[in-house]
Amino acid sequence: MTNRDNQHLIETQGPFSPQLQAKVDALKAKRQGMSLGSVQFDSPLLLAPMSAICNFPFRLLMEDLGAGGTVSELISCHGINYKNEKTRQMLRIHPREKNVGIQLFGEDEVAMSEAAKVAEEFGPKFIDINMGCPVRKVVSKGGGSALMKDPSKLGSFFALMKKSIQVPLTIKIRTGWDADSINAQEIVHIAHNEGVEFVAIHGRTRTQAYKGKADWELLERVAVDSPLPIIGNGDLHSPVLTKRRMEETECSALMLGRGPLRDPFIFLTSYLEDPSQSPFGPQDFKEIVKVYYDYVREYTDMERSHLIQMRKMIVWFVAGFSKVAEFRGNMFKAQTIEEVFRLSDEFFDELDARGKFSKRIDLEKPFMMGGHG
Question: What pTM was estimated for this model as a whole?
């Protein structure tokens, strides 16, 4: 069979075995496509941008598993303009990705506009401005959530970027810099005046980072009064929480970040009548690990990167299963990709053999509290 035949098979039947693909397709059929401004998505559940995570292997897997759209990891405008090879790698979009945006960060509107022109050449559906990253090395230079500190500068910033590209311009923000400067609503109106298509809002301030709870009351108020479509983001860590929010929200869409790392099927199971009863078992997890590995090998031929990517992703995927602490320790000691898959296969096969398995994730425990997007 030729590569072209293989590609056609993937496009028509999906990347999974017939058994898993049937379960995936049955839940995908429950979704409804929608638009945010002029941008079309396959569902209102989107993958949030996360640093060092949302390259095309992970984005593509999440689209395969029901994400209505995705956004790249945050990418430095200066790295693009300096023609840094590693940065250009981050801009790559897989031919099968349908609904992906590229997110840029930086403090200078000219540099951001020049970088946006380059990013557009890679074929995204939209260009997104990162105005939410709380990490010190980003905000200390004036990028990320630091852009929210002085809204008076944003009109010209948005206008110049909008003028530099043909695809839609979008932004991702927080509720404000701190509790004394909640200005998400003001920024939404500025964005609307300059032709921004939609706004994603993480329900915390910059000073909160990822601590405390996302302020969904504020997000809902902003969504009700907004002239632009609003995507709500924050604390949607389980299918139960996501389904409940979908049913209640005034937001036009929801964005999930950390949730899919521990439950990669969340974009599908959130559509179940009872989201706590997932039809996906250990062998399904075992299979998507293999598919993800195929995508990682397409992305880079560096074997060390394969090892690092697979170890961390598998450890996230198994969160909540029994006997995971010992497995996690062994996985991070693995020094070859063969050992990684031996450990992974043994873990999922043992779960399957026991016949009783469930994911029990303590949502009160901190998870990925550092900067990731």
Answer: 0.94
